[in-house]
Specification:
Chain lengths: 418, 183
């Protein structure tokens, strides 16, 4: 699918440079001549959107780092100073805080697109695993970033999540003290989180390069899940087709992003984080940011400390094995009528767990969280492997081109009939 | 390694094999040096994250008990964490002492957890995930952790919920009848 570079340098200078470092040829073959399936829909624009959000987070984050002080007596005040005194500081901080949420929105849509269209299956297993690694790095980065403003929710979120490591038998407490650099979350913890929060996005960027590289080796999946059979018939060049489509998707996404930043910048945050961190008082109700809620619900659903921690980490780690858990040879849910139903049930389970994660751990909420947690694992460990064996998929189109022509023909027939 | 084992094998069987060369020697010597150097480099990089000397120095806190009324819980800060000093009522002491060990997930007698029955001193950090439990709450009127619902009794022992252990005890001693030194 990568094909050889068709780049031809136009000027003498470009020829001179290309023969020494063929980077323009690489860009040309990756983002201009690169063949993309001609039937990609707007769900395929979220990879580009997520990449842009990473860049936006790095730019706003580097700027915020110029004004922030990672020290327990000054961190909270320095954030307020950014909001009140620094020129456009309010904009940078709101863009960064809401940008994290928008990054997760884009990535969740990107992940569920992969799940729906079976993009994780052979030959894209490594591409998928790199994606899971990016997601884990994002979670670590977002968690540490949330600690930096040193509000109540920052502090207690950090305390609860780092205490997860104390569940490890025998060495857990020693590991936790090592992570904290003390006997509780304190100044050394804030300092190291700041250092790592600055480092990890660049590691994410590195894994994104590998992710895109693996994508360009195996080629993109597409809504039919049928591999490209003929480059001239089934594909169009990346530029202008995918470039323009991605750019349009991004602009629409930015409208949503801008709405959050300019109209409801605090709606995704927690009011408790405007209270300075107090190590002696736990807020009545600790809630993580929305993008962690389903996993938090799984943690709390298990009535054992170690069990809860294991369940929470496995709920993500299990995705590393998804390419082999799914036994169906058909990729796209379009041609898998039963899988399609279970897919939407799984989406509903995720949303339900998210809701339960935001509620206090009492009574009916705990019971519901247990049922949904059980179903979450049942879906991935039992239903997905069995479906591939028992489900009867609908007939696949012979090629991407055939599928596109067939849908055009049916539209044409309808128009003619009217 | 491979060259060595081949040689040993050759000697044992008396067959002729390739002699170890100077390159084999350098390969093993360099490899061994690299392993030692890697360990010597990684150790300080890991160790620097452990609590530093100034954190370890803040090790003790003195508490004056004379102002704590019966039934009251005083919270003091020790090594960055809250410590609860609870002046227990006779009823609370009796409840704690009368609980059979068979009802406890982490069995411990009340006597083993106190130096004087009316004074309970525990670290105020839930053994589940580190929140600060609320005093005089929950079904045993001990502590209740609002984060994930762990319930402790008037001896700070876990009774219900996800926490695996009783509230931890700090090391402390009575320096006089009305003063304790924690740490």
């Amino acid at each position: 699918m990568t094909g050889h570079s068709t780049y031809v340098p136009k000027s003498a200078l470009a020829r001179w440079f290309e023969s020494r470092l063929p980077i323009m040829g690489l860009v040309h073959s990756s983002f201009i001549a690169y063949p993309t399936p001609k039937n990609l829909n707007y769900w395929w624009t979220f990879g580009g959107i997520a990449s842009f959000m990473l860049a936006a987070q790095i730019v706003t984050g580097v700027v915020l780092a110029m004004h922030y002080t990672p020290e327990v007596t000054m961190a909270f005040d320095s954030v307020e100073k950014i909001m009140r005194d620094v020129n456009f500081g309010w904009l940078m901080r709101y863009a960064h805080a809401n940008g994290a949420s928008m990054f997760f929105v884009a990535v969740y849509i990107h992940i569920f697109r992969s799940l729906y269209y079976g993009s994780y299956k052979a030959p894209r297993e490594v591409l998928w695993i790199l994606g899971v690694i990016i997601f884990l790095l994002m979670m670590a980065t977002a968690f540490m970033g949330y600690v930096l403003p040193w509000g109540q929710m920052s502090f207690w979120g950090a305390k609860v999540i780092t205490s997860l490591f104390s569940a490890i038998p025998f060495v857990g407490d020693a590991i936790t003290i090592w992570l904290w650099g003390g006997y509780s979350v304190d100044n050394p913890t804030l300092n190291r989180f700041y250092s790592l929060h600055y480092l990890l996005p660049f590691m994410i960027a590195g894994v994104v390069v590998l992710h895109v590289w693996a994508l360009h080796v195996s080629g993109q999946n597409n809504p039919t899940g049928v591999e490209v059979k003929s480059v001239p018939k089934d594909t169009v060049p990346f530029t202008p087709y995918a470039t323009v489509k991605d750019a349009f998707g991004m602009v629409c996404f930015f409208i949503l992003f801008a709405w959050f930043v300019f109209y409801v910048p605090g709606i995704l945050g927690d009011a408790d984080n405007y209270i300075r961190a107090n190590p002696l008082v736990t807020p009545a109700h600790i809630v993580p940011e929305w993008y962690f809620l389903p996993f938090y619900a799984i943690l709390r659903a298990i009535p054992s400390k170690l069990g809860g921690v294991i369940a929470m980490f496995s709920s993500i780690a299990i995705f590393l094995f998804l390419p082999w858990l799914d036994t169906s040879r058909v990729r796209s849910a379009r041609y898998r009528p039963v899988f399609k139903i279970f897919f939407w049930v799984f989406v509903a389970t995720g949303i339900g767990l998210g809701y339960l994660g935001s509620q206090p751990p009492e009574g009916g909420f705990v019971i519901a969280a247990r049922i949904l947690t059980a179903y979450y694992f049942l879906h991935l460990l039992v239903i997905i492997p069995l479906l591939g064996l028992f489900e009867r998929p609908r007939p696949l189109p012979a090629s991407i081109a055939d599928s596109v022509l067939a849908s055009r023909a049916s539209v044409g027939a309808r128009v003619a009939a009217e | 390694m491979a060259a060595n084992s081949v040689t040993a094998h050759s000697v044992a069987t008396g067959a002729t094999g390739p002699e170890p060369t100077r390159r084999d020697f350098l390969y093993i010597a360099t490899g061994a040096a690299a392993v030692v150097a890697t360990g010597a480099t990684i150790w300080p990089l890991i160790s620097q994250m452990s609590p530093d000397a100034s954190t370890l120095a803040l090790a003790s806190t003195e508490v004056d008990l004379s102002g704590i009324a019966e039934g009251q819980i005083l919270t003091v800060k020790w090594r960055g964490n809250p410590v609860f000093v609870r002046h227990r009522t006779p009823k609370e002491i009796k409840e704690a002492e009368d609980t059979p060990l068979s009802q406890l997930p982490d069995p411990a007698t009340d006597q083993s957890r106190v130096k004087k029955p009316e004074w309970l001193v525990v670290i105020g950090v839930c053994t589940h995930l580190g929140c600060v439990p609320l005093g005089h709450q929950g079904p045993y009127d001990g502590w209740f952790c609002p984060c994930h619902g762990s319930v402790y009794d008037t001896s700070g022992r876990i009774r219900q919920g996800p926490a695996p252990r009783n509230l931890d005890l700090p090391s402390y001693k009575f320096t006089s009848d009305t003063k304790i030194l924690i740490g």
